[in-house]
Specification:
By secondary structure, the protein is an all-alpha fold. It folds into 2 domains: about 210 residues, Up-down Bundle (Growth Hormone, Chain: A); about 200 residues, MFS general substrate transporter like domains (Growth Hormone, Chain: A), CATH 1.20.1250.20. The protein contains 20 helices and no strands. α5 packs antiparallel against α9, α14 packs antiparallel against α19 and α16 runs antiparallel to α19. The longest helix has 30 residues. About 50% of the residues are buried. The N terminus and C terminus are likely disordered.
Length: about 425
């Protein structure tokens, strides 16, 4: 027979955890912010940072996508470890891994390779270290899921939605600050953003170590699942095994593949075609973050009530397609207004598509199927990001500099067809 304490823990959080303390919320917020910053701060900088080692689109695409692939591979394991051993040790180890990964990235860029080893670049040593750094940082990217679990641990169901608002704020702020800060610091010194990101990860680690309490009680700990449950591919199989969400899941995958594909090579294209600087590229990506944050943070609710998720998803895909097609039409004389207009459309589009497409999937599921399916969607997002970035880099080198944008637009048209042709769910209206 379960103990009384065990019964209570299953019914509601302990009394002490029903009122989350500021240090707990601050630690979770900084962890979420660090997760987004470590990825986004390099978005406008990779072509500039790699200039001394490689100028190929394939290298930029693979290095950009490596983070997402590593995250995809270990995400189920990170979640299982936090359920078994507690949130704090897992978050601490992951943030520590982020410090190591970012530090290795910064050190590799700082070392005067030409002076100490002239043949290092030809031997591929700096590139190998940079890839290793991104793999380590990607493996450590499971902090987002664990920090979310912390918020769930310390809140009641009634105030959980408010606490989860921190996730959107942290991600939006990270994506807005990361590229902008990276561009500004990169104008001063190309290597400075890498050291800045490393320093922020160190601050995050100190805050977690000193302030974050353990929020997952011993009586709620779970044993590690079977190996199959830790296989990220099995999550994808479970999603595609459901006919009610199969088309939408494929659309979700295609969207992230297209979007992360052409955004990965965008800076490389702007640098080579129009001689854009780090600051100009950073400002463009910061604009994406700001607009997407405004749309998802304030506008999406009223828009959904008026138009519904399906119409907004299709409208967002249309905006993305137009923005994508505008990029290759820019000239040196018109690059500034055309590119910033295109970026604004891309930001509006992704701000609509990301939450609405996820909601369309969620509303077709019973409560029991939500966790597995939405976990599978996260896996599809990571895998799509890797494949899209890698394919776009290859296309950039082999098919021409503008090819990723034309191909991206075609993929988005296909995604729109999948969404429009998805079977309607009888439960959608009632759940709304």
């Amino acid at each position: 027979m379960p103990s009384a304490c065990g019964n209570v823990s299953l019914l509601q959080p302990p009394v002490a955890l029903q009122r989350p303390r500021i240090p707990t919320l601050l630690s979770a917020f900084l962890t979420l912010l660090n997760d987004r910053l470590s990825e986004s701060i390099f978005l406008p900088l990779l072509p500039f940072l790699l200039a001394d080692f490689s100028s190929s689109g394939s290298t930029v695409g693979l290095l950009s996508g490596t983070y997402a692939l590593s995250q995809f591979a270990v995400a189920p394991l990170i979640g299982a470890l936090s359920d078994r051993f507690g949130r704090k040790p897992v978050i601490s180890i992951c943030v520590g891994g982020s410090v190591v990964g970012m530090g290795l990235f910064a050190i590799t860029l700082t070392v005067p390779w030409q002076q100490i080893w002239p043949g290092a670049a030809a031997a591929g040593v700096p590139l190998a270290l940079l890839f290793t750094a991104r793999i380590i940082d990607g493996i450590s990217g499971g902090t987002a899921a664990t920090a979310t679990a912390v918020l769930a641990d310390v809140t009641t169901p009634e105030n959980r939605a408010k606490a989860f608002g921190l996730i959107g704020v942290a991600f939006g702020l990270g994506f807005a600050l990361g590229p902008g800060l990276g561009g500004v610091l990169g104008e001063m010194n190309r290597i400075l953003p890498a050291w800045g990101a490393t320093g922020f990860a160190v601050v995050n680690l100190v805050m977690v170590s000193l302030l974050l309490p353990e929020t997952h009680p011993l009586e709620a700990r779970k044993p590690l699942p079977r190996k199959r449950a830790l296989n990220p591919v099995s999550l994808l199989q479970r999603v595609f095994a459901r006919p009610d969400v199969r088309r939408l899941a494929l659309a979700f995958f295609g969207f992230f593949m297209a979007f992360n594909g052409f955004t990965t090579v965008l800076v490389l294209y702007l640098r080579n075609a129009f001689n854009w600087t780090e600051g100009m590229a950073g400002a463009a990506f910061a604009l994406v973050g700001v607009i997407a944050m405004v749309v998802q943070g304030g506008l999406i609710g009223p828009l959904v009530k008026r138009f519904g998720e399906l119409r907004l998803t299709l409208a967002g895909l249309g905006l993305l397609s137009v923005g994508c097609l505008m990029v290759p039409l820019a000239t040196k004389e018109t690059s500034m207004p055309v590119i910033y207009s295109a970026v604004a459309l891309l930001a509006l589009g992704t701000g609509l598509v990301t939450p609405c497409l996820r909601a369309l999937v969620s509303k077709r599921l019973t409560r029991d199927g939500q966790g597995a399916a939405l976990g599978g969607l996260q896996g599809l997002q990571s895998l799509g990001t890797f494949l899209g970035a890698s394919a776009a880099g290859f296309s950039y080198d082999r098919l021409g500099q503008t090819s990723p944008f034309w191909i991206g637009a075609l993929v988005l048209f296909g995604v729109a067809g999948l969404v429009a042709g998805a079977p309607r769910s009888a439960t959608v209206e009632t759940r709304i």
